[in-house]
């Protein structure tokens, strides 16, 4: 399969270069698509070969960035895409596993973070509650539905294409998978937990919005 890696980035001037350099070193021929989501200062285009730079003129949110990257990739011949965060919390070493699962026929691949002593308690509880809630509503249990490290095939994109422009995107993908679970093959495997900033990520307000939107996903 021809696989593209999509990296949404917002104000990640300091951490992104190391992510790109390690990824390129490990996978010299893998197309990398960086979507600069309206950073206050446009992210400098590093002189690293094989990187495609896309930019939103204003901040539209993570969901919009993933969609921009997916639309670009699939329109340029990708058979599958891997989503990876730009702040260093996802280890590029794991990319090979995503590619292997896609090549074996999985439509969606979820990299779920292993719990560790460094994991904030509020995140552990929030992750568990979110997984149980989505399972009750949509019949699919993914132990870490908020993890942004995941992959999907071209055919799966047509089924799980999301409307969420911000942090609800990960949960909406799982919700839409639940609606088409008889048509889509999915797999989950553990990835290393790297918490760069324990306060970064989905807030309580974001979580409440996700829960309210989930009722719409159920009806739509």
Q: Mind explaining what this structure looks like?
A:
By secondary structure, the chain is α/β, with parallel strands linked by helices. It has one domain: Spore Coat Polysaccharide Biosynthesis Protein SpsA, Chain A (Alpha-Beta Complex). It has helices spanning 16-26, 62-75, 95-103, 121-138, 154-160, 169-179, 204-219; strands spanning 3-9, 32-37, 51-56, 80-83, 108-113, 150-153, 186-191. Strands 3-2-1-4-6-5-7 form a seven-stranded mixed β-sheet, sandwiched between helices. Helix 1 (16-26) links the parallel strand 1 and strand 2 (32-37). Helix 4 runs parallel beside helix 6 (169-179) and helix 6 packs parallel to helix 7 (204-219). It is globular, with a radius of gyration of 16 Å. The two termini are 32 Å apart. The model has no long low-confidence stretch (mean pLDDT 87).
């Amino acid at each position: 399969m021809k696989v593209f890696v999509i990296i949404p980035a917002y104000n990640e001037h300091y951490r992104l270069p190391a992510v790109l350099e390690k990824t390129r070193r490990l996978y010299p021929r893998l197309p990398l698509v960086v979507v600069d989501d309206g950073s206050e200062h446009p992210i400098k285009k590093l002189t690293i070969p094989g990187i495609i730079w896309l930019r939103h003129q204003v901040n539209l949110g993570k969901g919009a960035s993933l969609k921009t990257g997916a639309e670009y990739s699939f329109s340029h011949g990708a058979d599958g895409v891997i989503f990876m965060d730009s702040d260093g919390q996802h280890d590029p070493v794991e990319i090979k596993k995503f590619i292997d699962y896609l090549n074996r026929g999985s439509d969606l691949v979820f990299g779920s973070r292993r719990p560790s002593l460094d994991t904030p308690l509020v995140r552990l509880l929030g992750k568990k509650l979110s997984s149980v809630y989505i399972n009750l509503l949509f019949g699919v249990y993914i132990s870490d539905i908020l993890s942004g490290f995941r992959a999907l095939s071209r055919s799966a994109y047509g089924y799980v294409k999301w409307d969420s422009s911000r942090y609800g995107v990960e949960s909406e993908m799982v919700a839409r998978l639940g609606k088409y679970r008889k048509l889509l093959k999915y797999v989950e495997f553990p990835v290393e937990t790297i918490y760069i900033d324990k306060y970064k990520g989905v807030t309580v307000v974001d979580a409440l919005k996700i829960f309210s939107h989930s009722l719409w996903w159920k009806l739509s």
